[in-house]
Each structure stands twice: as structure tokens, then as C-alpha cells.
Amino acid sequence: MSCEAVSNPCYPTNTTAQIKSNSIICPACPEGYARLNATSDVCCGECVPVIGPTTIPPKCERQEFGAKQIKIGACYSNQTYLHTGCGGYCDSSATATHGVSLTLDHKCTCCSAAKVTRFNVYMVCPDKSKNFETMFPVIDSCTCHSISCSKDITDNGLVEVSESSGEAVLKRRRRRR
């Protein structure tokens, strides 16, 4: 902190003392968020989700579960292989469209492997005469792929409400004779 004289036309001498603070005061981040370290070009830094129940899961990405031996029945691989997977969120939506019948336009994607490397794996069994070779995939990258997610509206538990009464509309199925 420092004290400096500043011009002020409201006082007869036209100067007053003013305290000058060089401290940066940043607003608090919302609950579940924490501030990243400030940089020279950004005073306060960005608020980002913290680990916990309010954390936004990562977009679809490759996950590693460690190098392990492969086991099939009583047989084991003669070396370890990196076990991988894909996980995280992908976008999905349902949009109502106009028309006589209730129609929803569904768009769905799921997190799945985009590139896979397959390894020849030699399996060693207790009975050496039954040793064999197999393949083991290691996921190199993941992405969100489009999938079919539309359902027949009558089968997915959707409740329709009448605009005029606000009451649920009951749809009865006709029996075939």
C-alpha cells in the first residue's frame, strides 16, 4: 500500500490523501469450482470444476488400467499388456418437432474406440501341449460415434400432457382381432 496526493476539486486546497492498494481482489468461484493460478496476462485466473460430485466428467477419452497378464481359463500370456478402455461423456439430445403426431428427433453419440492396435499374444497353459496364440487389442484413441437412440414414443415411458387441461393424456392400444 502507498499514500499519494490526488487532485480533488471539492477541497479548498484541491488535493487530498488517497490510499492506493496494489492487491488484486478476485470474485469467489461458484460452489464446486476453484480458481486456476493467475498469469501475467490474466489477473484472477479461470474458475474450473474441482474433483468431486460436481465435477464435469471429461469428454470421451482413452483410459489406461495398467499393464497386466492376460488370463484365459487356466492359461496366462507370457508377457504383460496395457489394458485400455474408453470413457467420458458424449453429447445426446431429443428435439420435439411439429406435426399431427408427437415426433422427437433424437441425436445420440457414445464413447468408443477410434483406433485400435492388435497384438499377437502367446498363451502358456499348465498343460504345455495346449499352449495357443490369440489376439489382444490395445485402444490407441477414443471418440464420440453416432448411434441410433430413437425409440417408439409409446414404449419409452413418455407422458403426454394436454395443453388445455394440463392432465396426462392416456393412450390406449387397440387390440388386434
Automatic annotation (TrEMBL):
Domain CTCK: from-to ranges: 60-150
InterPro entries in UniProt: Cys_knot_C, Cystine-knot_cytokine
Keywords: Disulfide bond
Gene Ontology CC: one annotated term: extracellular region
Protein name: CTCK domain-containing protein
Organism: Nematostella vectensis (Starlet sea anemone)
